[in-house]
Amino acid sequence: RKITQIELARKAGVSQTAISLILNGESRASFSPQVRARVLGLVRKFNYVAARRSPGRRNQNLVGFLYPQRPCDFYEFEGAYGDILNGLQIAAQKKGTHIVVLESRLFEQAPALQAITRSIRGIIVESTDADLVRRLAANCPLVSIGCRPPGLAVNHVRRNTTAAAEAILGHLRDLGHQRVLLVREQPIGPYGAERRAAIQQLAAGYSIHVIGEAVLKEIRAPLVDLRRQFARLLGPKRNGPTAVICLVPGAAILQIIYSLGFQVPAHLSVVSFDPAPHAELCFPSLTSVHEHLELVATKAVEMLFEQIRTRNHIPQEAIIAPELIVRQSTSAPPAGH
């Protein structure tokens, strides 16, 4: 039995895309000599012959999904990419195609970019690298999701960050909260920056005052520094916040709040952007914004295939509305606040 490209990639410890690039001789600068030697040695050992197809014809069974080499936000990488990828795979299967995951570093050299875009039907990108997205859009059908790179006219699917902020602020106002603490990561990624800006701009309209920010400087680092910030910002009970809005994983914030002797939601209410499985598993379960990332993915696939079918290059934008799911972590503020 002949060895398949999947099996060859597994034995070499590289991706299928890397196998194709190395065999086409178009990626000498993208891979180390050791990697190329390992791949070519296995090709000779197993007498592997790549399937041939006509040069200008795209593979009708593959759609690329490009995510950043460094995730836009660590928080997003932990919680969102799995939902997006799962949604893409399901939507692509309904179209009779498959999703191949690509890393941005594969496109650093122009020959590699051209080779990859010739081998896929189209590409869905999660990147704020305007130059990379521009070069990809010039070579194959493309849809951008998430934070669109500035100054680019491409098909785009985005989450409605303003509606998410309005849902959070409206819920807290209806419960009677007037002072909130914002928790974000540093450096803040594009999603975190969008959410932060929306909350700060809209808060006054809901009679809510953002009294300060606690900053998580390294998501995997000990939480001692963040705990110190919380101890300072919570301050005297009558002047402190009665609610916390998390732009970082809510489970870590619950841990800090409990360590300081506060109870959720008796003393502090907590709202987050945690995906449903994460929010449901916390104790208490977290009130959180569900951004329907599976719908973002489905709409991106639909827009890509519509672009392929009609060859329409007029940019379109789709906005996916979020949903606030109220769970156990929010209630009315304690008496005296």
Report on the structure:
The protein is α/β, with parallel strands linked by helices and 337 residues long. It has 13 helices and 12 strands. The chain has a 6-stranded parallel beta sheet, sandwiched between helices. Helix 8 (161-175) crosses helix 9. The N and C termini lie far apart (74 Å). The model is unreliable at 71-78 (pLDDT under 50).
Which spans have pLDDT < 50 for at least 5 consecutive residues?
Answer: 71-78
Q: Could you give the count of β-strands?
A: 12
Can you give the helix content as a percent range?
A: 40-55%
Order of helices and strands: HHHEHHEHEHEEHEHEHEHEHEHEE
SS-based class: alpha/beta
Q: What is Rg?
A: 24 Å
Which percent band covers the strand fraction? 15-25%
Distance between the termini: 74 Å
Q: Give the count of helical stretches.
A: 13
**Biggest β-sheet: count, sense, barrel?**
6 strands, parallel
Looking across the biggest beta sheet, what order are the strands in? 2-1-3-4-5-11
Mean pLDDT, rounded to whole units?
83
Rough outline = elongated
